[in-house]
Every structure is written in structure tokens, then in C-alpha cells.
TrEMBL record, chain A:
The lineage of its organism: Bacteria, Bacillati, Actinomycetota, Actinomycetes, Kitasatosporales. One of its GO terms (molecular function) is transmembrane transporter activity. SUPFAM superfamilies: MetI-like. Keywords: Amino-acid transport, Cell membrane, Membrane, Transmembrane, Transmembrane helix, Transport. One of its GO terms (biological process) is amino acid transport. This is Polar amino acid ABC transporter, inner membranesubunit. It comes from Streptomyces iranensis. Its main location: membrane.
From TrEMBL, chain B:
It is a peripheral membrane protein. SMART domains: AAA. It catalyses: a polar amino acid(out) + ATP + H2O = a polar amino acid(in) + ADP + phosphate + H(+). The lineage of its organism: Bacteria, Bacillati, Actinomycetota, Actinomycetes, Kitasatosporales. Residues 5-249 form the ABC transporter domain. Its EC number is 7.4.2.1. It is found in: Cell membrane. The keyword Cytoplasm does not apply. Keywords: Amino-acid transport, ATP-binding, Cell membrane, Membrane, Nucleotide-binding, Transport. GO terms for cellular component: plasma membrane. This is ABC-type polar-amino-acid transporter.
Amino acid sequence: MSLTSDPPVGKAAASDAEREDYSALKVVPVRHPWRWAAVVVTAVLVAQFAHGLITNSGWEWDVFADFFTTRTILKAVWITIQLTFYGTALGFALGIVLAFMRLSQSPFLKSVAFTYIWAFRSIPLIVQLLFWFNLTYLYKRLDFGIPFGPGFFSFDTAGLVGAMSAAVLGLALHQAAYAAEIVRGGVLAVDGGQLEAAAALGIPRLRQLRRIVLPQAMRSILPNAANEVISLFKGTSIVSVMAIGELFYQVQVIYGRNGRVVPLLMVATVWYIILTTVLSIAQYYVERHFSRGATR
Amino acid sequence: MTAMVDIRSVHKSFGSLQVLRGIDLEVRSGEVAVVLGPSGSGKSTLLRAINHLEKVDSGWISVGGSLVGYRRQGDRLYELREREILRQRTRIGFVFQNFNLFPHLTVLENIVEAPISALRRPRKEAVRAAEALLDRVGLADKAASYPRQLSGGQQQRVAIARALALEPELLLFDEPTSALDPELVGEVLDVIKDLAHQGTTMIVVTHEIGFAREVADTVVFMDDGRIVERGTPAEVLDAPSHERTKAFLSKVL
Ligand SMILES: Nc1ncnc2c1ncn2[C@@H]1O[C@H](COP(=O)(O)OP(=O)(O)OP(=O)(O)O)[C@@H](O)[C@H]1O
Ligand SMILES: [Mg+2]
């Protein structure tokens, strides 16, 4: 009896007569009794949980419904989206620059980028945000002009760095450190032969990066970048320490007034879930776009 | 005929490893030179130096009358900027052992990319030229495919078409068939033979002795960073004068 699908010809011919014929027999699949037990237990737990959510009056679903789409909450959701968008856009723009600095041949650029990444990954975001918020205390005026020389324009920092821009700045600078490493990882994952072929064809340097390297790097950048965007999105709740009216802050303000903590936390939670879902769906389509040519 | 490629006492080391130890070689316009030699003898390094993918330590290389990687002014050689080097490379086609096609671009996009971005050809014109080239390498129906959807032999033919799209005056092939299954080698060699018959100047590194015998005007045998022997296929392949050439040929034949 042979396990291969095409047995050696000579042997098969010799033993043809004595080979058994299994084709008429019925196939019985393997049974998994423990799997069924686990399914039953889990189903009971899920049902209990759902039952609790619906029947326990502590959740106060009526309060939830009242507040879910009020103007204040919608405005707060919009601010959260803005923080995420600007934080991501600026963070990744700076991150790409830092990544290419780290990949460059210049020891100076390399070490500046390395130091930046080291510093911003070391300082907790919340500490950093409070620093930015108190920028006025550190630098009273910003001067634009010849470095170390006379200034042409100047601003009072109090007017320049409002709470919102301080928050965006903090989120973006923090994000840039992580984005840089993600982009660098993606670029390193592109086969060196690709750049070599592009160079051999005389394709201009910037075009090599934009047209050949980055689209291929995107495949490994995207899953990590999506993680970052989603965690930044939820991380915006930290900004509530700066009294910015984003979702989590606004919810706190409201339950501070009416004392309905649980349903209002649920308002925030459900909004976070909805928007994360939207981001995940977007991720799917963006990844699909960049996987062109990746499979047969 | 004039020298298309002129290589003079080229030396190159990687750290303490001397890879090229004084290479002198001339390839005339329209000539097909086949470079043979054992692994590690410096064949790839030499080809890459001709295209300035590798900078030489001393000596010089000129292609089509202009120095590769440098500009002469009076009694000085100025190193070219990257942009000028890139422009020089558009006159030299390079075909890699591993094809190095761009996997995220279709076959057609692979071919038109350099003419459009490096030579600033109008897209329409580049596409028309690319279609003609695909036809020439027998892949007219694969324009919209992605490289991974093609066999190795087809990919290498696309890579050749991509190199030809710049209308180079010199073609360099680095073991164009070594990554291919034996039954696919023929289709790629046929394309290269065609080019040879049309008078394209090329330098081909290969282990295909039969191809060398049939197509080469000159066979060059390299060993340990030096050119040991050069001559017509009949001279080098059938009546080698050096022991090392004999030893090598007895192994590959
Ligand atoms: N970038 C590099 N850094 C260090 N050593 C290198 C580098 N490129 C090539 N070498 C070394 O130089 C020597 C010659 O390499 P080369 O690739 O030119 O050989 P080859 O004749 O093409 O061999 P093969 O037939 O195996 O392709 C080898 O010993 C190789 O290890
Ligand atoms: Mg080689």
C-alpha cells in the first residue's frame, strides 16, 4: 500500500491484483466532542452577557440614546477626527523625512534622526503634551530671521500655540517617531535589486523612491501604519488633559454635570468603535490597492 | 570600427579583497563579447563597473567615447553628480540575472517607465515603442500582465525589452539565463542572438558555451580579477592556451 498519489509504475503493475478498492466505502469525518463542549459554554456566556446589556437598567440605554447624537457630542467627535487626521498627516510626513534621514549616507543626518526618534519614543505622550501646552512658559516669543542673528518677524507664543495646535503638534511629533521606524522598515523590506534596476535604467532619484520603492514598501508599511492611526485615534482621548473638547473630554464634562457616568462612557465607546471600524474598512481597500501584482 | 567600450587597467577592491586586478578590454561597435570565468572571478563586478553601479578604485572606463562617472576638464577628472550618472546610464542597457522587474507595475509600465521619466518621451510614443518591443520579444499579448504572472523566461524577455526601450548603444547581460529552468534558456538566448545579428554591441556574462561559440565575436576568459585569455571563440574555446582556461572549460563543457 502506497501513500503517494502516483505510485512507482513498475511496482503498481506487479501488485495491481492484490490492491484493495476503497472507493465504495463511506468516509466518516473526525469528531470533535470537546470543541462542541467549548461552543456550548461560550454560547451560554455570550447570551448571558447580551442579556445583561439589554436588561440591566444600570446601562441606562435611554440616556445613551439621548446623548449619542447631540450637537455637543457630534462636535466633539469632529474634533477627535480632526486631531487624528492632522496628527497622522503631519506625523507621517515628518516620519517619512526622518526615515530617509536615517537611511541616508550622511552620519550627521542619521544621528539627528536617530536622536529624534530616541527622544520622542522615550517621553510619554501625556508629558509631552503638557510641555507643548506650556510652551509659552519656555519661549515667550518666536522670532523668524537669520539663525542666531536679528529677527524679522516675531510672535507671542501665547497667541501662536493655542490649545488645539499644541495638541496637534504634540500628537504629530510623537507620531512621527513611530512613523519613521515603520516607513524605514518598509523601505528596508524592498529588495535591493529594485533600486539597482531603477538606477541602471537612469530613472531620476526622487522618481525611484516615489514610483519604485514607496509603492512596494507600502505593503509592509500599511498594516503597521493602520495600527498607528487607530491607536492615535483612541490616543486623542489623552488630549482631554488639555481641556480640549474632544470626545472623551466632552463626555466627562457631561457626566460631571448629570452624574450618568456609565451611559455616557458608552456613548464615547460606541463612537470609538464605529470610527475604528471605518478605519479598518479603509485599511482593507488601501491594502488591496497596493497589493497590485503581488499575487498571481 | 571604433571602440564602443574601452576599459583601461581597472582595479577594484572590496575591503582587502581585490576583485579586479588590472582589467584591459576593448569592445568595438557592433561586437559581441562573451565573458566566461569561474564564480567569484569578478565578472559581475566588471559589468557593474561599466555601468557605474560600482565605482572603480583606479583605471578608467569609457563608453561611446565618454568617460563613465567622470568628466575631463584640462588635466583633471571631475566626478559626475548622480543626475549626470543617471543620464549616462540611459545609454547602457543592463539585464540582471534575477530580472529585477518592478513587481507592482504591469509589463507595459515596466517598459515605459524609464523612457518617460529618464528620457522625457511623451507617453503615447513610449507606449507605441514598448508595444513594438514586446512584439519583438514575442510577448505582445502580455502587456497588461504583472511580472509574477509570467514564467521566468518571459520575465527575462520583458527585462530585455525594458533595457532596449532606452535605445542603448551598449547592452550588458549578467548571466541572463542562470536563474531559468533549462527548457526556458533557449527562448531568452534566441532573443539575445537576434539582437546580436542586428549589430547591437553587447557584453554577455554567461556559462552557456554553446551560445558563446555561436554568437560571440570575442570570448574573454577571466580568473581571479584578471583577463587570462581573449580571442575568437575558436581560439579560446577550442584551443585555449592557458591551463586555467582549459581546466575551466573541461568543467563546464
Ligand atoms: N558589494 C560587495 N562587497 C564585498 N564583496 C563583494 C561585493 N560584490 C562582490 N564581492 C566579492 O567580489 C568577488 C567577485 O564577485 P563577482 O560577483 O564579480 O563574481 P562573479 O565572477 O560574477 O561570480 P559569479 O559567477 O558567481 O556571479 C566575490 O568574491 C564576491 O564575494
Ligand atoms: Mg556574477
